[in-house]
Amino acid sequence: MGWLTDWIVDWFKGLLIGGIMGNLGGLFDNVNNQVGEIATTVGQTPGAFNPGVFALIRNLSETVVLPIAGIILTFVATYELIQLFIEKNNLHDIDTWIFFKWAFKTFIAVMILSNAWNIVMAVFDVAQHVINNAAGVISGSTAVTPGMMAAFEAELWLMDVGPLLGLWLQSFLIQIIVLVMNIVVFIIVYGRLIEIYLLTSVAPIPFATLSNSQFGSMGQNYLKSLCAIGFQGLLILVCVAIYAVMVQSIAISGDPIGAIWACIGYTVLLCFTMFKTGSLAKSIFQAH
Predict the structure, then answer these.
(1) Is 101 contained in some domain?
(2) How much is the pLDDT for 256?
(3) In angstroms, rounded to a whole number, what is the distance separating the alpha carbons of residues 240 and 136?
(4) What total number of domains does the chain contain?
(5) Is-contact 70 113, C-beta < 8 A?
(6) Which DSSP state fits 202?
(7) What pLDDT does residue 228 have?
(8) Tally of CB atoms within 10 A around 176
(9) Judging by beta carbons within 10 Å of its beta carbon (0-12, 13-18, 19+), is residue 227 exposed, middle or buried?
(10) How far apart are CA 252 and CA 229, in angstroms?
(11) Residues 6+ apart with CB under 8 A from 66
């Protein structure tokens, strides 16, 4: 009867190991695909992500916001001219060159305002170029290979039925956590894109203030915010790449149970760090 007992134990172990490998295989496949998918999404320009929304935002910016920005620019230019007058001994000492200075600054301000949309798109074109280059470097070093999976399966066959049953339950828990992680990643990645559309829709207003030294901080901070949200995509990509490299330890670790719980910790850490990428990018570019 010993051979029958061994056969039943081996059959049950095979069943549990198959379930564990199925659960973790889905996790590894998710990690392998996550880098490429996020790189594609965060590396897209606003126009490439959703052409319909992009056209709506552009039309809103050019037909509704731009006239308001023109009024603001008129006020700023008038205020600038008054400031140039009173700087010279309260209108008692006026040089003709100040009119040329004012005309030149106003011309530059009008040119900037007229090309506000192109300037904003240029910022995201640069960010897209950087993110796409980074994705090409990162994706090659984060894949969980079949050899790693085979080594992990060999370690499972050395375990008893009891630990394997507990490990199967833990791997099932990881599947749920990964699903939650996907929702969090979706919210962060697509929330960033919505924020980009909101920023670009009002671009003419801060651009109208750039020519003035007193009001120009509004436009300067807006440009910093654009750079920050553009390069936030790179930070998101780096977070996922670090997570993918850490998850590789599951397949090469000598402690399968410890590796499973380490994966849960890595997943929670990924969600936390991705939430921090927005504030970190703003701190780097000193946007507030």
Answers:
(1) no
(2) 61
(3) 14
(4) 1
(5) yes
(6) T
(7) 92
(8) 9
(9) buried
(10) 36
(11) 113, 116, 204
Cα distance between residue 182 and residue 26, in whole Å: 13
Tokens coding 153: 């399966």
Side chain identity at residue 91, one-letter code = L
Supply the pTM of this predicted model: 0.76
Give the gyration radius of the chain's Cα atoms. 28
Q: What is the pLDDT of residues 29-78, one digit of tens each?
A: 665 566 667 777 887 888 888 888 889 999 998 899 999 999 988 888 88
Comparing CA positions, the residue from 226, 25, 50 lying closest to residue 123 is 226
Q: Does some domain include residue 131?
A: yes
Encode pLDDT of 166-225 as tens digits: 777 777 777 777 777 777 778 888 888 899 999 999 999 999 888 887 788 888 899 999
CA geometry: angle 34, 39, 44, nearest 5 deg? 135
Q: Which domain holds residue 56?
A: 2-64+115-284
What pLDDT, in 10s, does the model give residues 116-134? 899 999 998 888 888 888 7
Any domain includes 187: yes
Between CA 69 and CA 257 the distance in angstroms is 60
Cβ burial of 251 (10 Å; 0-12, 13-18, 19+) is buried
| Contact between residue 157 and residue 17 where contact means Cβ atoms under 8 Å apart | yes
Q: Do 267 and 243 contact (CB within 8 A), yes or no?
A: yes
44-47: long-range contacts, CB 8 A cutoff, minimum separation 24: 44/128, 44/193, 45/121, 45/124, 45/125, 45/128, 46/121, 46/124, 46/193, 46/196, 46/197, 46/200, 47/121
Residue 275 lies in a domain: yes
Identity of residue 119: I
192/188 Cα distance (integer angstroms): 6
Cα(18)–Cα(12) distance, integer angstroms:
10
Query: CA geometry: angle at 66 spanning 61 and 70, to 5°?
Result: 165
Torsion angles phi and psi, residue 69, rounded to 5 = -65, -35
